C-alpha cells in the first residue's frame, strides 16, 4: 500500500486549546476513510493542516509528496477539497466559477463543466452563485472538488444539504474514484450513511485519535454485544426463555420479541441453543453494533482514560 | 499564469459588481465638471485650458483616487477569508503571493481603466469644444493620468497590507478610513502647522523634502504641480518648484516604493497568516 497522506505525531495548538494532539496515521491509495468526531474534535483542523492553510505546532504532514506546512503545493493539482460551509464569489455564475477552478488546475474545460451536470446543477449553472440555495452551493462545491483526476479528496461534511437522491449519486461517484485508486477522507455526522461505505474509520475526540480501523476491527476492539432478536411463540409476557444462560442480558420487547445481548464470540452458541430449545422460533434478527454505538463506545472509553 | 487567471477573475467580478462602471462614471463626471466649471475663475484669455485642468484634476485625484483604491482593496484578503472563499482558493495549486499579485493586477487594471477613460473624456471634451491644446500641456496631462494610476497602485497596496493584517473586515475598513484621513488631509495640515511654528529655524529643506516623500499624496502633488513649468505657474507652486530639490524621478521613485514596499509586506503578512 503506497500512502498518499502521512500524518506523524501532529499537534496543533490555538493558544491554550489543543485542536489536534499527537495524531498519527497514514492513508493509502484507494482507501475510503471516514473521519468522525464531535464538533471541535479536530476534524476540520486536520484537513486544514493537510492543505497547509495552518501549520502544525509540532509533528509533520506529507500530502502527495508535498510538505504543506512549507508552502509546497505541486501535488494540489491532484487534490480536491470541499470545505465545510463552502462559499463562492456571488457575482459569478456556477459555470464561470467552475471554469475558474478548472483553469487553476490546468484541467480541460469541457470535462470540468460536465461535472456540473453530474451534480445536478445543469439548469442553474448559468445563474449567479448569489442566487443559489445552500444545497446548490454544496453541489457546486462537490463539482469543483471533483475537477480533474483527484488522487486525494478531502471532504468536510460533504452531504449536508444534499437531498437523498444526490447523496446516492455522490457516494457512487466517490466510491468509483476510490476504486480507481484515489484516497478519500470524509468527515460526517451521518454515521449510518458511512457505515456501509467507509472501508476505514478514524474516530477523533478532543483532538486525540481514539480509534482507527475497519468497522469489523473496531467491533472486535470494542467487544460490544451483538443483539439477537428472536420472535418466540408460546412464552408468557414477562417470561424469559429457559435456555438463555444466566450471565447473558436478556429483555423482552413489545410482547413477543426476546432481545439478547450476545458477546461477539457467543453469537453462534446462543443461536444454537435457541433453535435446539423447545420454544418455536418464528423469526430471528442479528444486529451487529452500529457505527453510532461504536462511536459512543470509543468516546466513553477515551473520556474514562483521560 | 496563475497570477493572470486570478487577475482576470478579479476584473470579471469588478465588471459584474458594477465597480468599473461606478468608478469610471464618478471620475468622468468630476473631470468633465471641473473642465468646464473650473475654467470660470481664470477665464479663457491667455491661459491654456488643459493646464488648468491638470491643476484642478490632480487636486481632485488626491482625494478621490486613494479613496476608491482603499475601498476596493481593504476587503481583498480579510473579506475573502470571512466569506470563506479564500479557504477554497488556497486549496488549489496556487501560492499565496500569486493570489495577492493577481488581485493587485486585477484591481489596478480596474482603477487604470476608470482613470484613463474618465480623465480622457475631459481632454476629448476640451478638444471638441475647440480649445487649443499644445504638446506641453498634453504631456503634463499624460503624466498626471499616469501618476494618478501610480497613486492608486500605492493605495491599493496599502489597503492590502491593512487587509492582510486586520482581524476582521470592520477593522480593516476603519483603519483604511483613518489612513485616508491621515495621508490626504491631516498630514499636510500638520506639516503646515509645524512649518509655521518653526519659522524655518530648525527644519531644513532636506528634512522638509523627506517629510514630503513620506506621504504618497505629497509626492504625487509635487510631481504634478511642480514638474511642468507650464503647470506650476498656475498651481501657485512656482516658488516651491524653484526651491525644491526633489526631481521628478525621485518623486516617481517615492510613489513606486510606496507601492512595492506595502505590497511586499502584505505578501509577507499574508503568507504567515493562518486561516
Automatic annotation (TrEMBL), chain A:
Pfam families: ABC_tran. Residues 5-231 form the ABC transporter domain. SMART domains: AAA (SM00382). InterPro entries: AAA+_ATPase, ABC_transporter-like_ATP-bd, ABC_transporter-like_CS, ABC_Transporter_VariousFunc, P-loop_NTPase. Gene3D superfamilies: P-loop containing nucleotide triphosphate hydrolases. The keyword Transferase does not apply. CDD domains: ABC_DR_subfamily_A. Keywords: ATP-binding, Nucleotide-binding, Transport. SUPFAM superfamilies: P-loop containing nucleoside triphosphate hydrolases. Involved in beta-(1-->2)glucan export. Transmembrane domains (TMD) form a pore in the inner membrane and the ATP-binding domain (NBD) is responsible for energy generation. This is ABC transporter ATP-binding protein.
Automatic annotation (TrEMBL), chain B:
It comes from the Bacteria. The chain crosses the membrane at residues 19-40, 52-72, 107-126, 138-166, 172-198, 219-240, 246-270. Keywords: Membrane, Transmembrane, Transmembrane helix. Pfam families: ABC2_membrane_2. One of its GO terms (cellular component) is plasma membrane. GO terms for molecular function: ABC-type transporter activity. The keyword rRNA processing does not apply. This is ABC transporter permease.
Amino acid at each position: 500500500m503506497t500512502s498518499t497522506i502521512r500524518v506523524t505525531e501532529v499537534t496543533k495548538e490555538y493558544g491554550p486549546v489543543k485542536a489536534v494532539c499527537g495524531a498519527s496515521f497514514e492513508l493509502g491509495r484507494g482507501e475510503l476513510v471516514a473521519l468522525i468526531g464531535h464538533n471541535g474534535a479536530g476534524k476540520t483542523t486536520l484537513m486544514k493542516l493537510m492543505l497547509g492553510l495552518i501549520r502544525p505546532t509540532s509533528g509533520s504532514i506529507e500530502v502527495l509528496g508535498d510538505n504543506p506546512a512549507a508552502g509546497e503545493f505541486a501535488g494540489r493539482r491532484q487534490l480536491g477539497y470541499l470545505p465545510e460551509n463552502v462559499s463562492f464569489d456571488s457575482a459569478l455564475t456556477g459555470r464561470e466559477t467552475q471554469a475558474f477552478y478548472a483553469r487553476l488546475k490546468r484541467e480541460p474545460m469541457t470535462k470540468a463543466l460536465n461535472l456540473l451536470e453530474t451534480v445536478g446543477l445543469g439548469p442553474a449553472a448559468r445563474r449567479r452563485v448569489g442566487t443559489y440555495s445552500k444545497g446548490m452551493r454544496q453541489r457546486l462545491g462537490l463539482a469543483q472538488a471533483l475537477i480533474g483526476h483527484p488522487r486525494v479528496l478531502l471532504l468536510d461534511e460533504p452531504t449536508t444539504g444534499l437531498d437523498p437522491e444526490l447523496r446516492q449519486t455522490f457516494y457512487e461517484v466517490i466510491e468509483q474514484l476510490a476504486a480507481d485508486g484515489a484516497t478519500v477522507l470524509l468527515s460526517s455526522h451521518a454515521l449510518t450513511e458511512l457505515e456501509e461505505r467507509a472501508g476505514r474509520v478514524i474516530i477523533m475526540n478532543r483532538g486525540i485519535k481514539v480509534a482507527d480501523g475497519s468497522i469489523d476491527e473496531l467491533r472486535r476492539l470494542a467487544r460490544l454485544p451483538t443483539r439477537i432478536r428472536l420472535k418466540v411463540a408460546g412464552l408468557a409476557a414477562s417470561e424469559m426463555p429457559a435456555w438463555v444462560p444466566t450471565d447473558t442480558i436478556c429483555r423482552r420487547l413489545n410482547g413477543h420479541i426476546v432481545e439478547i445481548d450476545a458477546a461477539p464470540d457467543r453469537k453462534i452458541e446462543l443461536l444454537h441453543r435457541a433453535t435446539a430449545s423447545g420454544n418455536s422460533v418464528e423469526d430471528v434478527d442479528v444486529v451487529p453494533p452500529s457505527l453510532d454505538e461504536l462511536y459512543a463506545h470509543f468516546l466513553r472509553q477515551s473520556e474514562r482514560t483521560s | 499564469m496563475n497570477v493572470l487567471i486570478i487577475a482576470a477573475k478579479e476584473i470579471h467580478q469588478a465588471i459584474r459588481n458594477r465597480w468599473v462602471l461606478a468608478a469610471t462614471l464618478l471620475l468622468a463626471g468630476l473631470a468633465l465638471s471641473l473642465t468646464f466649471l473650473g475654467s470660470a475663475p481664470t477665464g479663457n484669455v491667455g491661459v491654456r485650458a488643459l493646464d488648468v485642468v491638470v491643476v484642478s484634476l490632480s487636486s481632485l485625484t488626491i482625494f478621490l483616487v486613494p479613496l476608491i483604491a482603499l475601498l476596493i482593496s481593504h476587503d481583498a484578503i480579510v473579506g475573502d477569508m470571512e466569506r470563506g472563499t479564500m479557504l477554497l482558493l488556497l486549496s488549489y495549486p496556487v501560492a499565496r503571493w500569486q493570489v495577492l499579485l493577481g488581485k493587485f493586477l486585477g484591481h489596478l487594471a480596474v482603477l487604470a481603466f476608470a482613470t484613463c477613460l474618465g480623465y480622457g473624456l475631459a481632454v476629448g471634451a476640451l478638444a471638441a469644444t475647440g480649445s487649443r491644446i499644445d504638446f506641453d500641456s498634453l504631456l503634463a496631462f499624460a503624466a498626471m493620468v499616469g501618476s494618478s494610476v501610480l497613486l492608486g497602485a500605492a493605495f491599493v497596496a496599502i489597503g492590502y497590507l491593512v487587509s492582510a493584517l486586520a482581524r476582521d473586515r470592520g477593522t480593516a475598513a476603519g483603519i483604511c478610513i483613518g489612513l485616508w484621513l491621515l495621508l490626504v488631509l491631516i498630514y499636510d495640515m500638520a506639516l503646515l502647522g509645524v512649518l509655521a511654528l518653526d519659522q524655518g529655524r530648525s527644519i531644513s529643506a532636506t528634512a522638509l523634502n523627506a517629510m514630503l516623500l513620506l506621504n504618497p499624496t505629497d509626492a504625487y502633488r509635487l510631481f504634478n504641480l511642480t514638474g511642468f513649468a507650464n503647470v506650476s505657474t498656475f498651481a501657485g507652486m512656482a516658488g516651491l518648484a524653484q526651491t525644491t530639490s526633489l526631481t521628478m524621478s525621485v518623486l516617481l521613485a517615492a510613489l513606486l516604493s510606496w507601492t512595492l514596499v506595502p505590497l511586499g509586506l502584505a505578501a509577507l503578512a499574508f503568507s504567515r497568516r493562518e486561516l
